[in-house]
What we know:
Elements: H1 2-49, H2 69-80, E1 84-96, E2 99-110, H3 112-125, E3 130-141, E4 146-160
Antiparallel strand pairs: 1-2, 2-4, 3-4
Amino acid sequence: MRKRYEGLIRLLVLLLIVPMVVWKLGISRTVYQWRQYHTEQSQIELLGSMDKAPQTTTILYRDLLNSGDLLKVISLDVEENDLSVDLYVPYLTEIRGTATLRSAQIVLRGSFFSLLKMIHALEHDIPQVSLRSVEFSSSNNLREKEIQLRATLFVQQMTHIE
């Protein structure tokens, strides 16, 4: 009777467990990738049959960085937030075809919240320029016995060569 159960267990192992192990280790990933491939193919066909959307182009504005007009644009925010401009350095980054990429470094001094308001205004209110990075630093003012906070902003603008 014991041999009969051993034979039945071996038969169950061969019929149930071996196919599950083979499925899990070898075939399931292939079937998953095949299904994913067909899903993506149908999505590509659907997108191909849809009307093509108009291509957007980059809007090019007049140069604000090289001429220093950016300082005129932000001057109201600088005054309202009680900030001071310590440094403004514009430079040419790259020229490709008829487009020019200009960059500028602006160093502002003031309180933390005032600097954050100015950064927010640059990011949201002036679409012509793109804020690329901000670096904060602090220094001690020995005369007035206070800590001065500075923000170094790097901005870029794409312009059209005329």
